[in-house]
Design goal:
Helix 5 packs antiparallel against helix 6. This protein is 50% helix and 16% strand. The chain is globular and about 80 Å long. The chain folds into 3 domains: 7-120, Orthogonal Bundle (Butyryl-Coa Dehydrogenase, subunit A, domain 1), CATH 1.10.540.10; 122-221, Butyryl-CoA Dehydrogenase, subunit A, domain 2, CATH 2.40.110; 226-370, Butyryl-CoA Dehydrogenase, subunit A, domain 3 (Up-down Bundle), CATH 1.20.140.10. The protein contains 11 helices and 10 strands. By secondary structure, it is of the alpha+beta class.
């Protein structure tokens, strides 16, 4: 298999690197991090103008029609520059859910807005006591006259504080199956409790109490919702692996530069063989992550069991690598690595958040094991 980038892919990656290197240096990022929103609308509009928000969308809704590979290239560069804006949760996760939802009206209305940068979406799915299992939802959707009523609590909805609308999963009691609903964040009965994660990005718990929705707010019905959700979550997991890869590459490069410039006993630290071995271990971990990411990208459109196995394998390898590379980056920098003013500590915190997001390593190890015995089934129709 040829893993070299095409000319167009290389141009996309180079363009992303050029824009972020010029407009998203560490001090500018710290300024965004210190703001209340922790999201720069100017950057978001620029992402739309550059076509990044439209990369994976079909051409008929204003998209470019690229594969997940192109989006992963953007995510890798964003990982290198610790981008705070909610690109993955909107352009990968939410966009995929809407695209495959089966609601033609919502698809035609929402996706062009998303591509233009005028709409941000966030998924509210996780709940207390369950791990990504749509069949264990406690949030309920019930008939209420001609409308529906949603009640429940969602935890750790990534980037929900900056979203204009929410995609909420709920158990449709009348049919005994999961569904996905489009909910306005300011709708009566919706309470968003926002908080910061350890890396400074924001998430929220979403409380739904008697939220009334019209039938057209149903994005994905019981016949599609589970498959749509699994597919979209697998895609954002790979996107986050690509982001982690970019962050680990940045940690490795800045650590190597630090060892070349810092001297002890009259010679650069990079001359010490023990430290060279630790740098070599970091290099191996980064290369293993890149290889397993490519495997996941190659299997993203395969049958569900093959896709899930490849995605979970990528998450497990990337999670282990992140702990090694991030930890070595801190250790080899010494005390300066833990200061707020130095970049490597910010990378370490981001890598720890990425390891937990959308199923931690333990969850994906269990899923990887289960795929060897799970009966294969065809994915739902787009």
């Amino acid at each position: 298999m040829d893993f070299s980038l095409s000319e167009e892919q290389q141009m996309l990656r180079d363009g992303a690197e050029r824009y972020l290197s010029q407009h998203y240096d560490f001090e500018k990022r710290r300024a965004i991090l210190a703001s209340a929103a922790r999201c720069d609308e100017r950057h978001w509009r620029q992402f739309a103008e550059l076509g990044w928000l439209a990369l994976g969308l079909p051409e008929e809704v204003g998209g470019i029609g690229c594969t997940l590979i192109e989006t992963a290239l953007i995510m890798e560069v964003m990982g290198r520059w610790l981008v705070l804006e909610p690109y993955a949760t909107t352009a990968i996760l939410s966009a995929r859910i809407v695209e495959r939802s089966g609601n033609a009206a919502a698809r035609a209305a929402l996706l062009p807005e998303l591509a233009a940068g005028s709409l941000r979406l966030a998924l509210a799915h996780d709940e207390s006591g369950f791990r990504q299992d749509a069949g264990a939802l406690e949030t309920k959707a019930q008939r209420d006259g001609a409308a529906f009523r949603l009640d429940g609590t969602k935890l750790l909805a990534y980037d929900a504080p900056n979203a204009h609308r929410l995609l909420v999963t709920a158990w449709l009691e009348v049919q005994g199956a999961p569904t996905i609903w489009l909910v306005d964040r300011d709708a009566p009965g919706v309470a968003i409790e926002s908080y910061a994660l350890i890396d400074g990005t924001r998430a929220a718990d979403v409380v739904l109490q008697g939220v009334r929705l019209p039938p057209e707010a149903l994005l994905a019905g019981p016949e599609l919702a589970a498959d749509v959700l699994e597919d979209a979550l697998d895609r954002i997991v790979l996107g986050r692996v690509a982001e982690a890869l970019g962050a680990m590459e940045a940690v490795m490069e800045m650590t190597a530069e630090y060892l070349r410039t810092r001297s002890q006993f009259g010679q650069p630290l990079a001359k010490f063989q023990a430290l060279q071995h630790r740098m070599a271990e970091m290099f191996v971990e980064v290369q293993e992550t890149r290889s397993i990411l490519y495997r996941g990208l190659a299997a993203i459109d395969a049958l569900p069991a093959e896709r899930q196995a490849a995605v979970s394998a990528a998450k497990v390898v990337a999670a282990a690598a992140a702990r090694v590379v991030g930890g070595e980056g801190i250790q080899l920098h010494g005390a300066i690595g833990m200061t707020e003013e130095y970049r490597v500590g910010h990378y370490f915190k981001r890598l720890m958040v990425l390891e937990k997001a959308f199923g931690d390593a333990d969850y994906h190890l269990c899923r990887l094991s289960a795929t060897s015995t799970r009966p294969e089934r065809r994915p739902a129709a787009s």
